[in-house]
Amino acid sequence: MSYLVGYGSAYPKKVHHRGASIPANQNPSCSDRTWLVSRDPNPNIATGALVGGPSLSDSYNDARDNALQGEPTTTSSALFTGLLSGLDSNTNYTTLTSFT
């Protein structure tokens, strides 16, 4: 299973994220739990979001109300992002144009 949303065929479908779980044409109140408790996959895919990942027993509960594992976060992805940025260290940026 991939914990990077949108990568591969098996990734979290019920990410704990308001923008992903509520249809764009809705205007819910802060107390509206309709989409939080829905068993349907998110109507919007948060492509590229990295969720919390597996539990200590190496399992993942793909439920929208499981914020511990399903919340996209920067703290759990900081190391991963740092490693990926190292792959880009040889890029030549001298061809970028100035905005002045």
TrEMBL record:
<keyword id="KW-0624">Polysaccharide degradation</keyword>
<dbReference type="InterPro" id="IPR012341">
    <property type="entry name" value="6hp_glycosidase-like_sf"/>
</dbReference>
<keyword id="KW-0326">Glycosidase</keyword>
<keyword id="KW-0136">Cellulose degradation</keyword>
<keyword id="KW-0378">Hydrolase</keyword>
<dbReference type="Pfam" id="PF00759">
    <property type="entry name" value="Glyco_hydro_9"/>
</dbReference>
<keyword id="KW-0119">Carbohydrate metabolism</keyword>
<dbReference type="InterPro" id="IPR008928">
    <property type="entry name" value="6-hairpin_glycosidase_sf"/>
</dbReference>
<dbReference type="GO" id="GO:0030245">
    <property type="term" value="P:cellulose catabolic process"/>
</dbReference>
<feature type="domain" description="Glycoside hydrolase family 9">
    <location>
        <begin position="1"/>
        <end position="84"/>
    </location>
</feature>
<comment type="similarity">
    <text>Belongs to the glycosyl hydrolase 9 (cellulase E) family.</text>
</comment>
<protein>
    <recommendedName>
        <fullName>cellulase</fullName>
        <ecNumber>3.2.1.4</ecNumber>
    </recommendedName>
</protein>
<dbReference type="InterPro" id="IPR001701">
    <property type="entry name" value="Glyco_hydro_9"/>
</dbReference>
<dbReference type="GO" id="GO:0008810">
    <property type="term" value="F:cellulase activity"/>
</dbReference>
